[in-house]
Write a structure and sequence with these properties.
Layout (H helix, E strand, L loop, with lengths): L2 E4 L1 H14 L4 H16 L10 H9 L10 E6 L2 E9 L1 H15 L5 E9 L6 H9 L3 E6 L5 E2 L6 E3 L4 E5 L6 E5 L6 H10 L8 E2 L5 E2 L7 E3 L4 H18 L21 E6 L2 H4 L3 H13 L13 H13 L1 E4 H10 L7
Helix pairs in contact: 1-2, 1-11
Amino acid sequence: MGEVQRSVQEWRATSERALVRAGARPLEAAVQTDVLIEAELRGHPSHGLQRLPTLIERMANGVLTPGQDPDHVWVGSAAARVDGRGGFGPVAARRAVELLVERAEVEPCVVATVANSGHVGMVGLYAEQLAEAGLLGVVLSTSEPLIGAPGGRAAIVGSNPIGIGVPSTPGPFVLDMSTAQVSMGKVLHHRLTGRPLGPNWAMDGRGEATTDPHEATALRAFGGGKGLGLALAFELLVGLLSGTGLGEEVAGTLDTDRPSTKGDLLIALDPTPFVGEGWRHRSSDYLDAVRSSAAGTDPVLVPGDRARRSREQVMARGIAVSTELAATVTALANEKDPS
């Protein structure tokens, strides 16, 4: 399968035009596009431009409503509830981050929930934004059932990712991981590119391991029962606090015809009132010690390092997507086929 490579600026403009042409306002098209492009830059095409056709189809089907400004209400001095009003997930999540950063000036521990909004993309992006604001950030999100239990044959719990951001130099520590072996977006990416899955990523309808992305009906949790336990714990925390769906009640992160019923939970923490300013140096020193622990020539990387390296490389060479996806995306933007 061939590829089409274009500059980051070109793909960004193409995505924004496609979203605006579908009915999005320029600002929300820019916010949503930024999340897609950042995924491509950081080496996660599963959350990148391949999501654009689904977003636009959701808009066409009336289950993603453009032109919505998120509402919010403070339910306590340090707890906010954000309602995305059926709009773009990144727009609502960005509003939640803004609320947390502002309130963290007077409250050392602040929480926000997000409901009634679309898929937010990589949760690590929001954890990183909190870290860049000088805060410890924790971000949880839910999805429709995608993980099957060990010994089971059907998906019963979401792949429910977690993002954690910690300020440090030369860049923040950013953990972004699914509770599944891989995201369903990665399985879909392998379907698009015709590549087999890893040997322990997914299972078919009989509960057997499969490397065929077209036969995969459920993902495997990382670490077996431990990963499943975390997925369940995150789903309970997010679903109960945000008042959003649990289990089969959750929809709208991958399909094109059902309203989004997933939830998000964002937490911002400022250690300074507890321990003073020195914590910022401690995080950097500790992470540098981890990096310098390499036994051989291969470097030891901490979460966030690989994404920063990938970002620099892709910014320089441009983003490559499959010919098929390039044709679809450019057609949505009313351009000529670049292939």
